[in-house]
Amino acid sequence: MIHRILSVIMFVTLLILLSCNGDKPDTEAIEYILPDSGISIEGAWARPGRANGVTAVYLHVLNGSAKTDTLISLSSPAAGLTELHETFERGEGMMGMREAEEPWFPGRSIVAMQPGGLHIMLMQLRTELLEGDQVEVNLNFAIAGEVTVTAPVREPVSR
Ligand SMILES: [Cu+2]
């Protein structure tokens, strides 16, 4: 609990950065086609980050199967700790983020992870991540199994 509170406090600054810089959902205009079965990941990208710091990875999860799948675990060789986060309103216009309570991906649907919403949080970054770098994330689903995605590092696209 204390760990969670500390985490939230630690990330408030980042959060302000993440949610208050006027970013529009970056991949909104792209239409993804569901696969016939299984899970595929599209449109992955990561923000730059400092060594020992944190950053966020955004992507779309396309669940082509009829069944709801669940994310069991996440990892990245680039980070000491990797979590699925959700953004929430803390009140008084403040936004916070916390570990997502419902990491579910309904059948035949697309879940977007994008600025201001769900995201994969990379913490304890092992090295600096600069624009042009790539970062690997492993998503371990209950049904689909492990899916590895390579996310290019870039700044958000502002519209
Ligand atoms: Cu986060």
Structural descriptors:
globular; 1 helix; Immunoglobulin-like; 159 residues; six-stranded antiparallel beta sheet; binds copper (II) ion; mainly beta; four-stranded antiparallel beta sheet; 11% helix
Structural notes for this entry:
With 159 residues, the protein is mainly β. It has a single domain, classed as Sandwich (Immunoglobulin-like), CATH 2.60.40.1890. The protein is built from one helix and ten strands, in the order αββββββββββ. The strands form two sheets. Strands 1, 2, 4, 5, 7 and 8 form a six-stranded antiparallel sheet that branches. It has a four-stranded antiparallel sheet with strand order 6-3-9-10, with no helix packed on it. A hairpin with an 8-residue loop joins β1 and β2 (55-63). Mean pLDDT is 87; it is low at 8-17 and 19-24. The structure holds copper (II) ion (CU).
Mean pLDDT: 87
> How are helices and strands ordered from N to C?
HEEEEEEEEEE
Low-confidence stretches: 8-17, 19-24
Taking Cα atoms only, what radius of gyration do you get, to the nearest Å?
Answer: 15 Å
In CATH, what is the class? Answer: Mainly Beta
CATH architecture classification name: Sandwich
CATH-assigned fold name: Immunoglobulin-like
- Percent range of helical residues: 10-25%
How many DSSP-defined strands? 10
Main beta-sheet annotation: 6 strands, antiparallel
Q: How many alpha or pi helices?
A: 1
> Globular, elongated, flat, extended or rod-shaped: what is the shape?
globular
- What's the CATH H-level superfamily name? PCu(A)C copper chaperone
The amount of beta strand, in percent, is: over 45%
